[in-house]
Amino acid sequence: MRILVLGGTGYLGRRVTERVRALPGAHLLAGGRTGAEYTVDLAADPTERLAKTLAAAAPDAVVNCAGATGGDPVTLAEVNARGPAVLCAALREAAPAARL
User: Fold this and answer.
1) First vs last Cα of the chain: how many Å apart?
2) How far apart are CA 25 and CA 34, in angstroms?
3) What is the 3-state secondary structure (H, E, C) of the chain?
4) Is residue 78 pLDDT above 90, yes or no?
5) What percentage of the chain exceeds 70 in pLDDT?
6) How confident is the model at residue 84 (pLDDT cuts 50, 70, 90)?
7) Mean pLDDT score, 22-40
8) What angle do CA 18, 23, 24 make, to 5 degrees?
9) What pLDDT sits at residue 43?
10) pTM for the complete prediction?
11) Alpha carbon distances (Å) from 8 to 22, 62, 74
């Protein structure tokens, strides 16, 4: 099973990534703003770009650990509200069978 973890270097994502790596038969795919196998910025990427990235990754499942806990209200809304909405739209387009 191909599992794409978004935000895998953050507080929550590090722990999720460790657990995914330990699953038998799981193939971990890393997604994030920097230093990841698949570059994803849920606060800024348009749906079309994210859909292309998801199509390239071809995940069976996506775990979204990307988010922000500090900053101005606009930044918090972009990451924590817009990001998941764009992710859902892109998944529907590029990987409709993938679990979120």
Assistant:
1) 13
2) 26
3) CEEEEECCCCHHHHHHHHHHHHCCCCEEEEEECCCCCEECCCCCCCHHHHHHHHHHHCCCEEEECCCCCCCCHHHHHHHHHHHHHHHHHHHHHHCCCCEC
4) no
5) 100
6) very high
7) 94
8) 145
9) 86
10) 0.93
11) 15, 11, 23
Q: Is the pLDDT of residue 73 over 90?
A: yes
C-alpha 77/C-alpha 19 separation (Å) is: 28
Are the C-beta atoms of residues 1 and 44 closer than 8 Å to each other? no
Cα–Cα dist 33/43, whole Å: 10
Maximum alpha-carbon separation in the chain: 41
Q: Which residues have C-beta within 8 Å of that of residue 63, sequence separation ≥ 6?
A: 3, 4, 5, 6, 16, 20
Please check whether residue 7 is in contact with residue 66, taking contact to mean a CB–CB distance below 8 angstroms: yes
**Cα separation of 47 and 41, whole Å?**
11
